[in-house]
Amino acid sequence: MNNEYAIQKRRLGKTEIEITPIGLGVMQFAGGKGMFKMMFPDIPQEQKNLIIKTALDGGINWFDTAELYGRGRSERSLVEALKSLEVPDSEVIIGTKWFPMLRTARSIGQTIDKRLFYLDGYTIDLHMVHQPMGLSSRENEMDAMADLVDAGKIRFVGVSNFGPESMRRSHAALEKRGLPLAVNQVEYSLLRRNIETNGLLDTARELGVTIVAWGPLASGILSGKFHDPEVLAQAPTFRRRRLEPLLNRTPPLISILQEIAEKYQATAAQVALNWLIHFHGESVVAIPGASKVHQAQEAAAAMQFKLSSDEMERLDQVSREIQ
Ligand SMILES: NC(=O)c1ccc[n+]([C@@H]2O[C@H](COP(=O)([O-])OP(=O)(O)OC[C@H]3O[C@@H](n4cnc5c(N)ncnc54)[C@H](OP(=O)(O)O)[C@@H]3O)[C@@H](O)[C@H]2O)c1
To answer: Which domain covers residue 16, as residue numbers?
Structure first.
């Protein structure tokens, strides 16, 4: 890896929080149980500790988790790892999410103590509404979140999977309370680019809301590894079914990712992440998930170079051709 490029932190929306362009998603830490059994295997806590250590050693300063990820399992595993590494609260940024299905905004206040319990002394720097599907209005949800900021239980507020209109309404509701809407966490990758055309990216830029890209590797497809039938066969059934339809149209993109990767002594996955965090200036940050230590190492090291404009344009073009 050519390491000449220094990692530059970015502001999280219009907050005073500074984050690295790549954070680590820890949904994978919920694997092996409940609905996540169908997607990810159980990861031993020692391995989770090593994944977090590797991410931190590589410069990553923030982690994404959620209530939904095993109802506390992902949050707790993250914190166990941070505690085993003696990482002070002040050195790490944590985002979690409230899951709104069949719930009203009142449940935001009712569930916060559970989030704090699982995070066991670590601050909720960012609390997000996971989906725009709650029974209350977006405005009522933002009011409930603002109440938590006022009560000192969370620092900042974000949303996830919100379209341009819901995001604008959420932003306006928080503005009335004197707070910024920090992020909208949405699916975004070289294989999933609809936010560029549905108005979401433009609206986020206008409002100063950071786009946090989940699924930045399209579930790992962009690493190229699942094009090997033996690797694909080992993926849990539910994930395999999601990956299979993407295999036929992606080889032209994978081969360019691999070709560019050689120049940087990097991997295809790292080039895909690097494109995401630079193609739109500072507007987009990414949260790749890692179930293995080398994946956390690659995620962090993907911040240590910057693709040239020509390389970014080339990836842009090929990615458009295969959408
Ligand atoms: N807000 C939301 O609705 C939402 C939804 C989904 C996820 N998220 C968040 O976003 C994070 C990332 O999303 P995601 O996990 O769906 O997508 P992703 O980052 O595109 O895919 C992660 C998977 O890709 C594979 N991978 C990662 N790094 C790799 C590398 N360097 N080389 C080869 N394979 C690699 C791993 O697969 P294997 O485990 O098979 O090795 C890993 O589990 C989650 O952890 C979660 O925090 C948010």
So the answer is: 10-219+277-306
